[in-house]
Specification:
alpha+beta; 4-stranded antiparallel beta sheet; about 280 residues
Length: about 280
């Protein structure tokens, strides 16, 4: 599931493959940009911004992409067979003399002037893996709406950028509260630790192919994807339910013993258990 660490890895792969090289081919398989040809332009860099990717070209042009739930950028050598899904799922191809970057299932793809990047990422809060990271501002953003459930506040990229469903669930477990706790009710000592803890988790995992939050090799995560298996700490059955207004699928895992506090309506966990099996991290 692409979160800030996964996007950071994707940006590094794209940057290492393309930066400083001249495109020999571009192919955007979306109607709006079907006739655009960037061949001959030099790729300057690719940077992550929260869950967004910005690939910049000479002459002040930027390709903005977002992986959402299922998207991925794959990099292949010259003549290497592309492997990332069926051809009809390809949305973008950027090729140089020795590399091809292929974007699969990209839900967001747009070309814009580099000077206009703030239009697509300016709303984001401090980036957990970015040079603009500001823990005080991130915490102030989270606490600005004290009645909002903590899990929803953590997912709001306007508060801090880079957290998705996995880190939301793991952070709430490590803080010892349910994701449904109003953020204003979070004890002050734990609220103060929250931004730093989130940053440490993402930094620790940005170099890893498989996320780990437990420090135990055979158990990567404390609660995410573990329902209805026993909690690693207390052996209570881990639960899962959706969180939010229902407009997006937001599987949320928690231990009702280690994380006391508000919970969803009775019956919700079982309803979502089979819908959200644990999935491998998107490469």
């Amino acid at each position: 599931m692409p979160e800030g660490d996964t996007v950071w890895q994707a940006a590094r792969r794209l940057h290492e493959a393309l930066a400083g090289k001249v495109l020999t081919r571009s192919d955007f398989r979306v109607p709006k940009y079907a006739t655009v040809d960037l061949a001959g332009r030099t790729v300057l860099n690719t940077i992550p911004r929260g869950k967004h990717l910005l690939t910049r070209f000479e002459d002040g042009l930027t390709l903005h992409t977002h992986l959402r739930m299922e998207g991925a950028w794959k990099v292949f050598g010259a003549g290497e067979r592309w492997r990332g899904g069926p051809a009809h799922q390809i949305r973008a191809v950027l090729s140089t003399a020795d590399r091809a970057a292929v974007g699969y299932r990209l839900q967001v793809l747009e070309l814009l002037r580099t000077a206009d990047e703030e239009r697509v990422v300016g709303h984001l809060g401090p980036d957990l893996l970015g040079p603009d990271w500001d823990p005080e501002r991130a915490l102030a953003n989270l606490l600005a709406d004290p009645a909002r459930p903590l899990g929803e506040a953590l997912l709001d990229q306007r508060n801090l950028a880079g957290i998705g469903n996995v880190y939301k669930s793991e952070l709430c477990f490590l803080l010892g509260v349910t994701p449904w706790l109003p953020v204003g009710a979070l004890p002050a000592d734990r609220a103060e630790k929250l931004p730093g803890l989130a940053k440490r988790l993402l930094e620790a995992n940005r170099e890893r192919p498989v996320r780990q939050t437990t420090g135990v090799h055979r158990h990567d995560l404390f609660v995410y994807g573990r329902a209805p298996r026993p909690c690693l700490r207390c052996h209570t059955s881990v639960r899962v339910a959706d969180q939010g207004d229902g407009s997006q699928e937001r599987p949320t895992y928690w231990c009702p013993t280690c994380q006391p506090g508000p919970a969803p309506a009775p019956g919700s966990p079982q309803r979502w258990r089979e819908k959200y099996p644990r999935r491998p991290r998107t490469p």
